[in-house]
Design a protein that fits this description.
Elements (H helix, E strand, L loop, with lengths): L2 H14 L16 H21 L12 H4 L2 H9 L2 H13 L15 H15 L4 H14 L10
Helix pairs in contact: 2-4, 4-7, 5-7, 6-7
């Protein structure tokens, strides 16, 4: 049999099988889910930001103020910043502040990379979903390390 005939045969078998997808069962989502989702996303953002910064000191000393963590601009950033874009932005922000090839003690990784990896590793340990990590990376640069992240907030 030729490949095209095998593909057609597979498609026919798949369509004839009971694959569990029925129109009446396809909407397992509660009716008010789409109304409540934005509020839920904001609540989760608050939760994960507080979880990440719990017990961490502000770059100039003392705990990170709760008002910083509930700032609507920060929450918007956390909801909208993709992790890969935040890593690129973090590198750009740190580039002018740290010497390019400054190596951390007992490591082969530059400080740029080390800072970002430390934040990501903390997020992973705390089981913070990756969709929230981008904003948290940028917030950590600002609040924990004192980098000028003003254009994003």
């Amino acid at each position: 049999m030729m490949l095209k005939e095998l593909e057609l045969e597979f498609e026919e078998e798949f369509l004839m099988e009971d694959n569990g997808l029925h129109e009446e069962e396809s909407s397992d989502v509660p009716e008010d889910f789409y109304e409540k989702f934005p509020k839920l996303a904001v609540c989760l953002s608050h939760h994960y930001v507080k979880l990440f910064f719990k017990g961490l000191p502000l770059y100039c000393g003392g705990p990170v103020p709760a008002a910083y963590l509930s700032d609507p601009k920060l929450i918007r950033l956390i909801l909208n910043a993709a992790q890969i874009d935040a890593i690129d932005e973090a590198h750009q922000i740190m580039q002018g502040q740290l010497r390019e090839y400054e190596i951390k003690k007992n490591s082969h990784v530059t400080n740029h990379i080390s800072i970002i990896l430390d934040v990501i590793q903390r997020c992973i340990r705390l089981q913070i979903p990756s969709c929230y990590r981008g904003g948290i990376i940028l917030a950590a640069l600002k609040y924990l390390f004192g980098f000028p992240v003003t254009n994003l907030f």
